[in-house]
Design a protein that fits this description.
Number of domains: 3
Strand order of the largest sheet: 14-13-12-15-19-16-20-18-17
Number of helices: 16
CATH class of the largest domain: Alpha Beta
Shape: globular
Number of strands: 20
Distance between the termini: 47 Å
CATH superfamily of the largest domain: Spore Coat Polysaccharide Biosynthesis Protein SpsA, Chain A
Strand content: 15-25%
CATH topology of the largest domain: Spore Coat Polysaccharide Biosynthesis Protein SpsA, Chain A
Structural class: alpha/beta
């Protein structure tokens, strides 16, 4: 069931700018399913209902009494205060018995339930969507030079080669949006001097959306250091900050020397940050409204690591496309392992691959979250960490080179029902047309059993080929057998299943409740692209 949530804009004066931020949070990559947001200007028709209320704060500094009167008609309020760099709007005077407050560009003492950055403009993602992975170089700044911090930055940039400087007379008086987006696409680094009041500007989010590394200001034209802003609003952000723009050439050189690794960390952080904002706001919305978010049935976990074909992304693109064919709205978490010592010669190509993967996730795909690890964890620990992000009752595990077939039916509703019932903890999608004779001794059934409409065979053959699993079971199993070990899951778990079967018989199988999907005729529901090629399979560590 979809819950329709009104988003009431108090007025439309900043709608064209602020809707980019609001949409990025309310309809972002990580927003749980089950909510649908309908935007309107004003409060007409909302009597007795709750709403997300967006206030462009600087225009309503003295209006809080009228707003309080309007809010009394609402059962609950999630208040978002935007467009108020000076913090003029008296948030503390807004009174409602059931309310959470989120503020954009907060001051150091703000105690709101959530803090929001300036964020990206609404049109930017659309302009980036059709752009193929760009070959970036140099720096790019296009904007107004109308305060001391902008002038300090521009005076340095005027004397630098290897970039593009476009100085404009005022806000929204510069390049057309498509030309501005092209400048971002071309650049590696975007200097982001302060706005007149806050260190944050659209430019920081624009750079991150476009796969650039922003260099953010810590000072404004006003007295006082604002480095606290990045720590409070952008916790853990990996992009550099700057207090003296004369040092920008050195900062730029450091970024260039670390490219694309630093860009990958910035992009991965940004995509995770937006997802986290969405989930935190969803939690407030659910608490206020009582309308439960629907996390969906399944989260897809895709493991990836260095292979000979990198930086090419064709293999993982085929795998992601096959998942999307069957599960168009499921969240996909791409678990990106670090580089093991034996594969250090792949490091440069792997970082380039990650850069291409992040571009796809950030501009073309929906609800695909790459999670990058600097250290080599191997499949077990990689999955343990990814499971911390999972909110669905089931996971579908898919290695990056094992797509699902798309030309034979898969009864996902029946498979979900079998796992939800508790009768199955793991259901594997077979990669052969039938059970091979050499593997028949690993099947406990000769004929499929009907388990909530799904034809399934009990098996004691664990394989890491695509499989659907109960999330709780997967967490317990990995914590027991893989925690602290750098190993492929199958290499450890296959033997454990056999040990339980040999020692305890059916009671041992019941510890795993491991099945194979066995539809009539051709059983093949996945295939292998052999990403490893001629590379060795490394021994357990």
């Amino acid at each position: 069931m979809t819950n329709v949530i009104p988003v009431a804009w108090v007025d439309d004066r900043m709608l064209c700018l602020d809707q980019g931020l609001v949409d990025a949070v309310l309809s972002g990559q990580g927003w749980p399913t089950g909510y649908e947001f309908h935007h309107q200007v004003g409060f007409e028709g909302l009597d007795g209902r709750g709403a997300v209320v967006v206030v462009p704060g600087r225009f309503h500094e003295t209006d809080y009494r009228r707003l309080n009167a309007q809010l009394t008609q609402l059962r609950w309020v999630l208040l978002i205060v935007t467009s108020d760099e000076e913090r003029l709007f008296p948030v503390q005077k807004i009174d409602h018995h059931r309310m959470a407050t989120w503020v954009q560009t907060p001051n150091e003492s703000d105690t709101a339930d959530g803090l929001l950055p300036v964020g990206p403009p609404a049109h930017l993602r659309g302009l980036l969507h059709d752009v193929d992975h760009p070959a970036k170089q140099g720096w790019f700044f296009a904007g107004q030079v109308t305060n001391a911090r902008r002038e300090a930055c521009a005076s340095v940039l005027r004397g630098m080669a290897g970039g593009e400087l476009v100085e404009t007379a005022g806000f929204m008086q510069g390049l057309p949006p498509d030309e501005y987006a092209k400048g971002l696409v071309r650049a590696r680094v975007v200097p982001c001097p302060s706005g007149p009041v806050t260190v944050d500007t659209f430019r920081v989010a624009e750079a991150l959306e476009a796969g650039c590394v922003p260099v953010a200001d810590t000072l404004t034209p006003r007295p006082g250091d604002q480095s606290w802003y990045w720590q409070r609003v952008f916790p853990g952000a990996p992009f550099p900050t700057i207090a003296n723009w004369e040092t920008f050439p050195e900062v730029l050189a450091d970024i260039e020397a670390d490219w694309p690794r630093i860009a990958n960390r910035c992009s991965a952080w940004w995509q995770s940050y937006k997802r986290d904002l969405a989930h935190r706001m969803a939690a407030d919305l659910q608490r206020l409204s009582g309308l439960a978010a629907d996390p969906g049935d399944v989260t897809v976990l895709v493991s990836t690591s260095p292979i000979p074909s990198h930086p090419d992304t064709a293999i993982i693109e085929e795998t992601i496309a096959s998942v999307r064919h069957w599960l168009p709205s499921a969240e996909i978490i791409v678990m990106c392992d670090g580089v093991r010592a034996e594969q250090d010669h792949y490091r440069e190509r792997y970082e380039d691959y990650l850069n291409r993967l992040l571009w796809l996730a950030g501009t073309k795909w929906r609800r695909v979250l790459p999670v990058i690890h600097d250290n080599h964890l191997h499949q077990g620990e990689l999955t343990i960490k990814a499971l911390d992000l999972v909110r669905t009752p089931m996971v579908l595990f898919v290695e990056h080179d094992t797509p699902l077939v798309t030309d034979c039916p898969i009864d996902w509703a029946a498979l979900f029902a079998a796992v939800r019932s508790g009768e199955a903890d793991v259901i594997r999608l077979h990669h052969e047309a039938h059970v091979l004779p050499d593997h028949e001794h690993l099947m406990l059934d000769r004929e499929p059993r009907d388990v909530h409409g799904a034809p399934l065979l009990r098996t004691v053959q664990w394989s890491q080929r695509p499989h659907l699993a109960n999330t709780g079971f997967y967490r317990r199993m990995l914590a027991r057998y893989l925690a602290g070990r750098r190993a492929m899951i199958e290499d450890v778990v296959h033997g454990r299943v056999h040990e339980d079967w040999r020692e305890y018989g059916l009671a041992g199988w019941d510890r795993w409740r491991l099945w194979m999907y066995a539809p009539e005729g051709n059983m093949k529901r996945s295939y292998h692209l052999d990403g490893r090629g001629d590379d060795p399979k490394w021994e357990l560590e």
